[in-house]
Amino acid sequence: xxxxxxxxxxxxxxxxxxxxxxxxxxxxxxxxxxxxxxxxxxxxxxxxxxxxxxxxxxxxxxxxxxxxxxxxxxxxxxxxxxxxxxxxxxxxxxxxxxxxxxxxxxxxxxxxxxxxxxxxxxxxxxxxxxxxxxxxxxxxxxxxxxxxxxxxxxxxxxxxxxxxxxxxxxxxxxxxxxxxxxxxxxxxxxxxxxxxxxxxxxxxxxxxxxxxxxxxxxxxxxxxxxxxxxxxxxxxxxxxxxxxxxxxxxxxxxxxxxxxx
Length: 261
Prior knowledge:
By secondary structure, the protein is an all-alpha fold. About 85% of the residues lie in helices and about 0% in strands. The chain has one domain (about 45-240).
């Protein structure tokens, strides 16, 4: 059992140590609080690849808006014009159909116009017209798909630029380690920040771009399926009307020959 004198000495020692501990705690430097970086600061720290990533982001936004306006069934197929064009071709109003295709260009009218261009001197050759429409459809569909493919290019390019910035930042970091050694971590901070910021920025741009590309690609595929069905209906009605007219002309020629005979 401790004597009263020992207990008193322990109490005095504790009382003397408390101010020293409080002073040491007050004198110890507090760790600096992390400061939120602004967008301009992130661009500056990210380095030169951030300019290319900025171009990719602007291109992705512009292409998404453009495809949102253009890749629509009402814009590419134009059902009202299709109905009018079908009516004219069913009545063999070829000149009126050509004028309509010129006045209202669209994916459907451009393809039909290419087929009607094969008609020369009033001679209707169905196989030639169908061939002309097939050739034009490949060209028109390919041209309409180009803006969508550009989104895919941006989606792939942005992470690659981010990776390039990462490599650049890590090269600078290792160079700083070689010059300043491991005892000064502040020499590595900017270079590592460059590496991480460019990687994150590339992914932030690339992921939405890829989602946008897949959305418009699927939508375009659906529109093209409707386009093929629409062109097939237009050509079938035109073919029926043309064959009916050819039969009527042949019957009239036979009747005229019989009358003359």
